[in-house]
Structure formats: structure tokens, C-alpha cells
């Protein structure tokens, strides 16, 4: 983002939120309908005692960890992140970083679970491989991405949210905002 005033940045962020898109596969949904669908998915897995695995790299890993807190605390969902340092570095060392999350998802995820992947670019090989592992495990997949509309992650989920920005900070904060909203709404359903 270019240097601007705080008010200008807030206005830009508001416009970014207005531009968020949602799709089931490649079929566009109204954003509110997509949020309701995600809430239904989370409520269903909570009632079944299933788990949600939240993954991201870098700033998106921080978003994942933050949202794990809210899903557990507010939403009473069995939410986990799989980036505990010694485990992730072990898997990365033994199998390569591109496959580290896929190995963990393959080990932990079961039919009825949910993988929520967060990637600003939507191009991270480790996120794409984790999605494939979740599919093999019978887990559902929700993706959050940004940058180019044609990024590969954007159509890999059962439900896909896309942020129309090529700025890491804007995309990460839009994902955090959306997931906070979902966690707050899920708490109302508890």
C-alpha cells in the first residue's frame, strides 16, 4: 500500500471488504450466503465432535493461530493449527516444506473434519498439497486467498473466499476480519 493517511487506509480497507468474493468451487455465491454456508459447516462439525485444521504460512500462520483461539474459545470448535515449531520443522526436514503440512493433514484429518487454508497468494505449494491430503482423508476444504483472481487455491475448496488485493497486509487483515466475524457469529449459535 502506498503511503496515505489513516483515514485513506481505512477507506481503502472498507472498499476491499466490499470486494470480497465467495464461491463454491467455481460457482459464485453472495458473500453473506458463503458466510452462512461456512457457519453451517462449522456448526455441523462442532455437533459431530469433528475437528477443523487451520493452516497458513508467515502472516497467514499468525491469522490461523489467532482464529484457532476464537474458534475454540467462542465457537467451541475443536480447532487446531499444525505449525508447532518442532513438529513442523521435523516434517519439513524429513519430507520437505512443500509436503510437511500434507503429511500432518494426512495423519490427523478424518472424514467429517474441515481444513481451512489461508494463503495470500493462493500459490503456496504446501497449502495446495495440504488440500489434496485433506481430500484423500475425506475432509471438507475452505480456502481464503487473495492476489490474482486465477490463483490455484481459489477453486480448490468446497467453499472459497477471495480478497481482491495484491498487498499482503490488506489480504491478511481481510482474512482475519472475515474469520473474526465468522467466529463471533458461530458463538451466537452455541
Poorly predicted regions are none
Q: Radius of gyration in whole Å, from Cα? A: 16 Å
Question: What is the strand content?
Answer: 15-25%
**Integer average pLDDT:** 95
Figure out the total of helices.
Answer: 7
- The total beta strand count reads 7
Number of separate domains? 1
* CATH topology group: Rossmann fold
CATH architecture: 3-Layer(aba) Sandwich
CATH class: Alpha Beta
| Shape label | globular
Summarize the structure.
The protein is α/β, with parallel strands linked by helices and 190 residues long. The chain has helices at residues 6-18, 31-48, 59-73, 85-95, 97-108, 125-137, 168-188; strands at 21-24, 27-29, 51-56, 78-81, 114-119, 140-145, 159-162. Helix 2 (31-48) crosses helix 7.
Fold blueprint:
Layout: H1 6-18, E1 21-24, E2 27-29, H2 31-48, E3 51-56, H3 59-73, E4 78-81, H4 85-95, H5 97-108, E5 114-119, H6 125-137, E6 140-145, E7 159-162, H7 168-188
Parallel strand pairs: 3-4, 3-5, 5-6, 6-7
Antiparallel strand pairs: 1-2, 1-7
Tell me what the structure shows:
With 190 residues, the protein is an alpha/beta fold. Helices cover 54% and strands 17% of the residues. The protein has one domain (30-188): 3-Layer(aba) Sandwich (Rossmann fold), CATH 3.40.50. A 7-stranded mixed β-sheet has the order 2-1-7-6-5-3-4, sandwiched between helices. Helix 6 links the parallel strand 5 (114-119) and strand 6. Helix 2 (31-48) packs across helix 7 (168-188) and helix 4 (85-95) crosses helix 5 (97-108). It is globular, with a radius of gyration of 16 Å. The mean pLDDT is 95.
